[in-house]
Specification:
Belongs to the asp23 family. This is Asp23/Gls24 family envelope stress response protein. It is a single chain. This protein has 119 residues and is an alpha+beta fold. The protein has a single domain, classed as Cation efflux protein, cytoplasmic domain (Alpha-Beta Plaits). It is 34% helix and 33% strand. The chain has 3 helices and 6 strands. Strands 3, 4, 5 and 6 form a 4-stranded mixed sheet that branches. It has a two-stranded antiparallel ribbon with strand order 1-2. The longest helix is centred in the C-terminal third of the chain and has 19 residues.
Length: 119
């Protein structure tokens, strides 16, 4: 995502959208990281037996003047995926509404990594 996202007469940097989405999604209990950042990778590696692979944090596009988001996350073992994905969707929707103020068509959640506790 290198080009701005244009919606409702404003251009938004993908980095800004990623920051907003990450801020709210990372507050959800069970989310280890949104995408994989060097710091997150190091922390997850210290706390688990397996480090996640690299993944983009967010994909965004506009369809019919509404935002379509795909959020990539690494999650902790023990949280049911379906419930966790719904909690992430709700948190991201709240964040986009509060900070960006545009309509969201869909939020897809991709679980790209699973962190197991050290035994």
């Amino acid at each position: 995502m290198s080009q701005e996202i244009f919606i409702d007469g404003i251009g938004i940097s993908p980095d800004v959208l990623t920051a907003v989405v990450s801020r709210f999604a990372e507050e959800v209990e069970g989310v280890a990281s949104v995408g994989v950042k060097d710091l997150a990778t190091n922390l997850v590696s210290m706390l688990s037996t397996r480090a996640p692979s690299a993944a983009p944090a967010l994909e965004a596009r506009v369809e019919g003047n509404k935002l379509v988001l795909t959020v990539h996350v690494v999650v902790f073992f023990g949280y049911p995926f379906k419930k966790l994905a719904e909690a992430i969707r709700e948190a991201v929707l709240r964040g986009i509404d509060a900070q960006v103020g545009v309509e969201v068509e869909r939020i897809d959640v991709c679980i790209d990594g699973l962190v197991f506790p050290k035994e």
